[in-house]
Amino acid sequence: MKRFFALLLILAMGVCNAQKSDTEKKLSDIEKLLFIKPDSARVLISQVLNIKKQHDTVYAMANIYSGYYYLVKNNPDSSILYYEKALDFSVGLPLYRARVLRLMAAPYRKKTDYSKSLQLLNLSENEYLAINDPKGLATVYGEIAANYNAMLRPQDAIPFLTKALSLFEKAKNKKDQMPIKQSLANTYMNIGNYPFAIDLYEETLQGFKKAGMLKNYYLTLINYSECLINVGKVDMAKMSLLEAIAGLGQFSDKELIGSAYSTLGRLETQKRNFVQCEKYYEKAFYLLSSVNSGRAVPVADLYLRLLVYLKKMDRAQEVIALVDNSTFKNKANLQDLARYEKAKIEVYKKMGDHNMALASAKTTIELLDTLNSTQDKKAVITMQAGIQHEFQGKKNDTLKKINSKLKESVDSTENKKLLWIWLPLTLLAALMSCYLYKTVQHRKKLAENQSDIAELVAGQKAAQMLNKKMSAEIKEQEEQLKNIEEKTGSIEKYLNDFANLSPDINADTTELKSLIGDTDYGDRFRETFTSSNTGFIESLGKAYPQLSESDLYFCALLNLNLPYKDLSIILKVVPEAVRKRKYRIRKKMGITDEKDMEYVLTQHNKKLKH
After folding, report:
1. Cα 270 to chain centroid, rounded
2. What is the CATH number of the domain that holds 14?
3. Is the residue at 38 inside a domain?
4. CB burial class (10 A; 0-12, 13-18, 19+) of residue 352?
C-alpha cells in the first residue's frame, strides 16, 4: 500500500512539473509572438488564462500580455481592462505592480488622457524606487518624456530622456535604450532639428528591426519620413511610408496608417501632384475619423486648404461639418485646433460668407489667447519648441564661462577679437531681456483689450451692413494679403481679413499683430564667432580638406576647451551628441587618440600666433 501511494505522489509531481514547464514555454512564446504575430500570441494567452491553480505571477503575466495585445491592436479601453486585472494579481508583488502601472499609462496616453497617464507613471516611479530597480526607473522616465512630447512640451521631455539614457548607459543596456532614443528623436523632430533626429531614427530603426519589435519599427518609419521630407529627401520618405503602411496592416492600427497616408499627402503636395494628394488626405481623414482619433483635426486642416485650392467647396463644407459635430475634435490640442480654424477662414472667405469667417477668426483669437495663458506661446508664434528656457536660465553663467575660457586660450594680442565676441553676446542678452519684458507688457495689453474685442463681436450686425461697401477694397488688397501671408506664415493674414470686415476692428488688431515674430540668436553667434576665428578655420581646413564648414566650426569651438555641457548649450543639443560629433570628426581626420586631436588643434592655434 505504501508503495502504491508513493507511486501516485511521484506521478502527481511529474504532472505538475510538466504543466509548469508547458506554461512557462507558452509565456515565453507569447512574448516573442506579440511583436511579430500578435493574433497567434492571443491564442496562447487564452490557453494560459484557462489553466487552473497557477501562481498569481502566471495570471499577472497573461493579463499583462493581453493588455499589450489590445494596445498593439489600437484598442486602449480593452488594454486598460486587462491591465487592471493584472494589477489585481500583483498584490504583494512590487515588481509586477510597478510594471503594470507603467504599462497602463500607455493606453491612457493613447486616449490623450495625459493627466491620468502621468499619475500612473508617478506611482510606478515610487514602486521602482522602493525596490531599487534602475532599469524600471529608466523605462518610466522614457514614458514620462513620451507624454510630454505628445503634449507638445519637448522642453519638459528632454530632462527625463537624459536621465533615462544615463541609467541605461550605466547598466550597459543597449536594447532598452532604443525606445528612449526614439522618444529623443521625436523631441528633436518637434523642435526642427531634422538632421540630428534622422541620425537617431536610423539607429533606432536598426535596433527595433533586430529585436523583432515591428510595431515600434513601423511607427518610427512614419516619423523618420517626416524628417526626410523636411530635408528634401522625398523619394526615401515615400519608400519608408509605403513600407510602414504595408507592415501596419497586420496590427489593424487605423490611426497610424491614417497618419502615414497624411504624410504621403504632404509629400505629394511638395511635388504639386494635387490629384494624388487629395486621395491620400481623403483616406487619412476617413481612417482617423473612423477610430475617433484627435489626429483627424490636423489632417482636416491640410485637407481643407487643398480643397480650397482645388475649388471643391462642397466637399470642404462636408469636412467642416464632420469635424465640428465630432467628439474627436475635443481630443485635439489647441495648436491643431487653431490651425483648423484658420483653414475654415479660408473656406468661408472663398465662399463669400464673411459672417462665418468672422466667427472663425474670433475662435482663432480665443485659441491663441488660451495658448498664451498656458505658457505655450512659442507654439503659437513659431510652432516650434526647444530647450531655450534652459539656455535663458543659465545664459549669464555660460557667458562668463565662455569669456574666461577665451581669455585662457588666446594671447594678449588677441584681446580685440575677444572684445568683438563679448560685445555681441552682451547685446544678445540685453535683447533677450528686452524681448521678455515686451512680451509681458503685450500680454497685459491683450488682457485689457478683451472687453473691447467683446464689444466688437457684439457689433457684428453693424459690420454686416458694411460688407458690401468693403468688398471692393477687399479685392484690391487681396494681392497684398497674399504677399504678407508668404512672408509671415502666421495669423497676421487672418487678422487682416478680420480687420477688412470693418474699419472699426482694424485699430484693435494692432496689439495682436505685435505678438508675431521671433529671433534665432544661434545663427548670429555662429557668424560672429566664425569671423573672429577665420585664421584658425582656414589653417585647419587646408590641412584637412575632408572637413566640412560645420566640422571646422565645431573644431573651433573645441579649441576653447569648454566642457561638453557648455558646448551642448551653444549647439542646442545634449552633451552626448557633442561627444559623438567629436568622435566622428576625429575619424574623418584619421586621428585615433583624443589627445592627438587636442594636440593638432593646439598646433594650428600656435601657428597663427607666430
Report:
1. 22
2. 1.25.40.10
3. yes
4. exposed
Q: If you count them, how many residues does the chain have? A: 610
- Mean pLDDT to the nearest integer, 223-238: 90
Q: Rounded to an integer, what distance in angstroms lies between the CA atom of residue 364 and that of residue 380?
A: 11
Give whichever of 27-36, 173-182, 473-482, 552-561 has the largest mean pLDDT: 552-561
The values of phi and psi at residue 562, to 5°, are: -80, 155
Q: Which cell is 242 given?
A: 509605403
Can you read off the three cell numbers belonging to residue 79? 488594454
Cell of 90: 500583483
As given in the structure block, the three cell numbers for residue 559 are 579649441
Q: Is residue 87 part of a domain?
A: yes
Q: Report phi then psi at 306, rounded to 5.
A: -65, -45
- Domain of 44, in residue numbers: 2-132
The CATH number linked to 569 is 1.10.10
Q: Give residue for cell 495648436.
A: 335
Domain boundary among 132, 164, 186: 132
DSSP H helical segments within 410-466, as ranges? 415-448, 450-458, 460-465
b/e per residue 246-270 (b: at least 16 CB within 10 A): ebbeebebbbbbbbbbbbbbbbbbe
| Spatial separation of the C-alpha atoms in residues 445 and 357, rounded to whole Å | 25
Looking at the predicted structure, is the pLDDT value of residue 199 above 70? yes
Rounded Cα distance, 103 and 81, in Å: 12
* CB-based contact 551:436 (threshold 8 Å): no
62 three-state secondary structure: helix
Give the pLDDT score at 421: 53
Does the residue 477 lie in any domain? Answer: no
Which of 132, 147, 162 delimits the end of a domain? 132
In which residue are the cell numbers 515565453 written? Answer: 28
Q: What is residue 82's predicted lDDT score, i.e. its pLDDT?
A: 92
User: CA-CA distances (angstroms) from residue 137 to 162, 168, 395, 498?
Assistant: 12, 10, 31, 51
The answer to whether position 63 is within a domain reads: yes
Structural domain total, the chain: 2
Q: Tell me, what DSSP letter sits at residue 193?
A: -
Evaluate if residue 126 carries a pLDDT over 90.
Answer: yes
What is the C-alpha to C-alpha distance for residues 401 and 8, in angstroms, rounded to an integer? 80
